[in-house]
Amino acid sequence: MRFGKIQYGLTVLFIFLSVIGGAMSLNLWATRQNIPTTATVTEDIRGWMTLKQVSEAMNIPVSEVKARLTLPVDTNDAKSLKELSSERGLSTEEFKERLFQK
Amino acid sequence: MNKHSIFHPTRRISLLRNASLIGFVMLMEYFGIRHQIVGGGPQGSPPLDSYCVFGGVETVWSYVTKGQFLQKTNLSNLVLFTAAVLVTLLTGASFCGWICPFGALQEWISAIGKRLFGKQFTLPIHVDKPLRYLRFVILALILYMTISTNKLWFEFHDPFKAFFGFEFELSPGFVILVLLSLLSIFIERFFCKYLCPLGALFSLLSPRSFIQLKRQSSHCIGCNVCNKSCPMGIDVAHAENTGGDCIRCLQCMENCPKPEALILEAGKAPSPPIPHSTNHRH
């Protein structure tokens, strides 16, 4: 069976998009990240996590999280580590490490 | 209308392919910008890694052995990888020529090189041939490091992520991106030919694809126009079928003066591929 050039190109796109569309319709398409339920090492903490999410994952109070990160007590709990670190001119990794420093 | 214009009726396939590539490039740019603006996590926008086909290759081991995805990857990566494998098994490595946004960038940068120098440069065959195996070495290295570190080891070296993720600060990925962009000015699809780990994987599946790009020697006049137009440096003019390195961009078919010399045919067993040779291009 012969394929024309245009027919071939459309077939390529149709197959690729059909698999994605099929997966979406079957609820097999997931892109969002889950909040880690426990965090014991720096790698478990993500830059997008808010202070509240960090406290829940590390099972410590938010005030303790703020203290470890040397943040003022009135810092907004809904701010992410990435936002807070960039406000202070630090890298997110550097900031995350503070959480586990004894 | 100028015969070389992409809007010329004889170049409809190039127009369609470039429209497809522009669409996928824009989609990736959108995902990258959205993630930068909104941020990640359940409350934000997914990272670019979640839309990466190669992420599916990297995370599959962790998913099969531990039932969990590597950080920043998700089920979407496995879906995209499955889609790309299915496309390759049915149509050849057309993902590289029709969908891959990073391949598109290289192709467009090469177009600048062609305008500047009037041609693209090729490596001598004794360098070109062994260098193509580098893709497999890179694939093996990435898989080994990903499995042993249990994270996306390649992400810091990934030029795709550096570009589409707007990570333009000095990092290994950014340096590789700049180097590849410079090399692409001189050598068309340098990354695809010599470095792409995903392309390496597809080149193993492509020779067994359902639809093959074949040369009918009875119709071929041996003008070598196909060789000159091939961005992957395949010796199309002397092959029965174009083999694993062919990205199915169909530029050879578009430029061929004999409509029956190169055909896309399905359902027959492939003939043995002929080795590529950059020396036949000129």
From TrEMBL, chain A:
<protein>
    <submittedName>
        <fullName>Uncharacterized protein</fullName>
    </submittedName>
</protein>
UniProtKB/TrEMBL annotation, chain B:
<keyword id="KW-1133">Transmembrane helix</keyword>
<feature type="domain" description="4Fe-4S ferredoxin-type">
    <location>
        <begin position="211"/>
        <end position="240"/>
    </location>
</feature>
<dbReference type="InterPro" id="IPR052378">
    <property type="entry name" value="NosR_regulator"/>
</dbReference>
<keyword id="KW-0411">Iron-sulfur</keyword>
<dbReference type="InterPro" id="IPR017896">
    <property type="entry name" value="4Fe4S_Fe-S-bd"/>
</dbReference>
<feature type="transmembrane region" description="Helical">
    <location>
        <begin position="78"/>
        <end position="105"/>
    </location>
</feature>
<keyword id="KW-1003">Cell membrane</keyword>
<feature type="domain" description="4Fe-4S ferredoxin-type">
    <location>
        <begin position="241"/>
        <end position="267"/>
    </location>
</feature>
<protein>
    <submittedName>
        <fullName>4Fe-4S binding protein</fullName>
    </submittedName>
</protein>
<dbReference type="Pfam" id="PF12801">
    <property type="entry name" value="Fer4_5"/>
</dbReference>
<dbReference type="Pfam" id="PF13237">
    <property type="entry name" value="Fer4_10"/>
</dbReference>
<keyword id="KW-0472">Membrane</keyword>
<feature type="transmembrane region" description="Helical">
    <location>
        <begin position="15"/>
        <end position="33"/>
    </location>
</feature>
<keyword id="KW-0812">Transmembrane</keyword>
<dbReference type="InterPro" id="IPR017900">
    <property type="entry name" value="4Fe4S_Fe_S_CS"/>
</dbReference>
<feature type="transmembrane region" description="Helical">
    <location>
        <begin position="133"/>
        <end position="154"/>
    </location>
</feature>
<keyword id="KW-0408">Iron</keyword>
<feature type="transmembrane region" description="Helical">
    <location>
        <begin position="174"/>
        <end position="205"/>
    </location>
</feature>
<keyword id="KW-0479">Metal-binding</keyword>
